[in-house]
TrEMBL record:
Record's compositionally biased regions (Basic and acidic residues): 22-36, 47-57
Domain Phosducin: 68-185
Family: Belongs to the phosducin family.
Skewed-composition ranges (Acidic residues): 58-71
Region spans: Disordered: 1-71
GO cellular component: cytoplasm
Gene3D superfamilies tied to this protein: Glutaredoxin
PANTHER family linked to this entry: VIRAL IAP-ASSOCIATED FACTOR HOMOLOG
Name recorded for this polypeptide: Phosducin domain-containing protein
Amino acid sequence: IAMTEYHTIYKGPEGETTQWDDIQRKLGNRPEKDPVWKPQAYTPEAEPTRGTERLDGEDAEGLEEAEDEFSDDRFLEQYRQRRIQELQASVSRPRFGSLEEIRRDDFVAQVTNAGEGVWVVCHLYSDSTRACGIMNQCLMELAPRYPATKFLRIVASNCIPGYPDANTPTLLLYRGGKCEQTLVGLERFGSQATSPDLIAISLNRFGAVCGDPDDAAVAAEQLAGVASHHPGDAAGNDAGSGILSVDELDRIARHRGLSIRLTSLGPAYRIACRDEGGAILGVTQGFKVPLFPILHADTMQVQRPRRMGAGGKPAGGPAPRFKRQGLHGLGLLLFVATLAHAAACGCQRIEMLAINDAEDTHARLVRYYRRLGFVARRDVSGERLSDVPHLLVWGGRGLRMDGDVAALTRRWAPVVRAGAQSEA
């Protein structure tokens, strides 16, 4: 029987020796061990300088290859400097955030010398006037929304001795030590049916009083020529706060040389606005959600009106009657027409999607719809499985926003009616 001896040889790490090996080497019985290999210490190579001197000897092809390299450097430096300036400006920009009470002795320091580029809204009020209480309440809500604007109030008789209570409330708009506007009465803001948003939009017609210049431009166009009110509007507030019909909106539009027509097929609807020549200026469409009191507003497209020349052919430039009403005035008319159709269908809620095709456009859409009164409900990003039904319904990514039909109607119907009365 053959026997096999199994054994294991243990070998230590490379370069490690035993005490016996060290004694034998010391006595000269064994050769010296080989040195253990160690990698050299890492030393980073010096990056070549990117000065312009190296370009002196380059030909046309070499200069073309180096062009992108230097343009990237310039772009990054410009971007860095711009961000530094933006951060410095944001830190140095004054912030307020509340409606402050001042006295006559404080007027020059608080209003005239408020600071370079600072908008000041000073309310001259009277305790005995109900409209002043409404204005104070609205300004108290606006002040924390727009902390870059200074909101103040002062008793009218304390600011200007003998100032009549009949002229209160009065808003003084100051900027750079100069009085830009004097707005007397609550009627121009919607009388006693006004709101903080309507006041902010009305103020933005004179500049970036509430918000940045881009927001002011959007808001100024939104209600240009529509937010003016007559002194007699207060008596008609009850009538002006009711639900508008599409037919009534069509009569209002005809005073501007436009027409509004509603067509529907089952739950689907389409509202088109045309000019006197029959050209379509704006279209909004969608459908009523079956079995639910919800109106799905799919799209709203608005075009700039065209001037009609001889023979009914379009001529250059905007239509003269629409010059002061602005693009967003037409958008508001279509929006209120959509509300009218939603109310007629028994819908309690209207839903829409602020499409996200580009970041800057998306941000403006969200600001615009929030200003109208919509509330963000869901971010349809397409990154979740639950977004698939929304993507199929809306056809794209964006922020889904909802609005209460009754609340939106109470808010904007008086504005459209008042605009029609002021143009009559």
